[in-house]
Amino acid sequence: MFHQPAMIYFQTVAELLSVRECARRLNVASSAVSRQIAQLEDALGMALFQREGRGLRLTAAGEILFRHVRRVASPLEAAVSELDMLRGLKTGSVRIATVESVGLSFLPPLLIAFSQRYPTLHLSVEVTSSADVVTRLVDETVDVGFGFVTVPPREIEMAVRRDVRVGALMRPDHALASRQKLTLADCFVHPVAIGTRELSIRRAIQSTLDASASVPPPLLEVGSIRMLVELAQAGHHVSIMTPIGAHTEISSGALVFRPLDDPGLSTNRFGLMVRARAGLHFAPAVFYDHAKEHFRSLELPGTVLA
């Protein structure tokens, strides 16, 4: 009695209340629509539409049938939507911008786990500064960003964030490694390596450096988080940084991290960012959810959930 074309034509005419508009939407002849509706009415023995001026209106029988057709069609439309999502996940891409320290710590395991789960998706990762991460998100040249931003601009949504304490990174056999509390002055007794002014970690400690009563010894300034880690591993220097960027070395015990207890020393706010009020496509949205779960379960010394 009920054939698929007839039900599709009926639902569309009921929504538009026009045979002509239904034919235009479905790209069929108006006569074909009228024929299917007539056959359906004959099968039911009831009129489904009543002509009203130049348009149509549903009869009582048409209202009942339309209500049930929509109820049946809703799960099918949901299934089609999920199939569209699956199609997107098979062919999509995710553009990521990250600061160097994240690329050296927990981002590689996150990327590996995601690629294993969604092997057909394309991932593109750019390593840049925190300021550039924000710029690229605003300009919509990347989908997801990882970086240090104390107060994000209104165009940016920081979905998950952590306030990361600045500390001293060193080998376990360093003279300061046994001390649980350290200040910058304690570190200055030994050779110290810090980031250049272009790095967000330097901006986090600059005011404390400027206000220090003691004159610091000559500092080794480097523009790379990886080099700060390597210098700490060499054993001669204490590197002033956050634990992000040395996550693997700290977890393995190759290096130790001691948060600094200087009064007024600011934390460095790290977060997972996307554009505010901008809907992500299927693949970036799935990566975003995957990253949030990974990030929330991550434990790093010197950090607290914000």
Structure write-up:
The protein is α/β, with parallel strands linked by helices and 306 residues long. It has three domains: 80 residues, Orthogonal Bundle (Arc Repressor Mutant, subunit A); 108 residues, Periplasmic binding protein-like II (D-Maltodextrin-Binding Protein, domain 2), CATH 3.40.190; 101 residues, Periplasmic binding protein-like II (D-Maltodextrin-Binding Protein, domain 2). A six-stranded mixed beta sheet has the order 4-3-5-12-6-13, with helices on both faces. Strands 9-8-10-7-11 form a five-stranded mixed beta sheet. Strand 8, helix 9 and strand 9 form a beta-alpha-beta unit. The chain is rod-shaped. The mean pLDDT is 85.
| CATH level 1 class label of the largest domain | Alpha Beta
User: What share of the residues lie within helices?
Assistant: 40-55%
- State the separation between the terminal residues, measured CA to CA: 61 Å
The number of domains? 3
Give the strand tally.
13
In angstroms, what is the radius of gyration?
31 Å
Strand content: 15-25%
Overall morphology = rod-shaped
CATH architecture of the largest domain: 3-Layer(aba) Sandwich
Number of discrete helical segments: 12
Unreliable runs, pLDDT <50, ≥5 residues?
none
Give the overall average pLDDT: 85
Sheet with the most strands: spatial strand order: 4-3-5-12-6-13
Please identify which CATH superfamily of the largest domain we are dealing with: Periplasmic binding protein-like II
CATH fold group of the largest domain: D-Maltodextrin-Binding Protein, domain 2
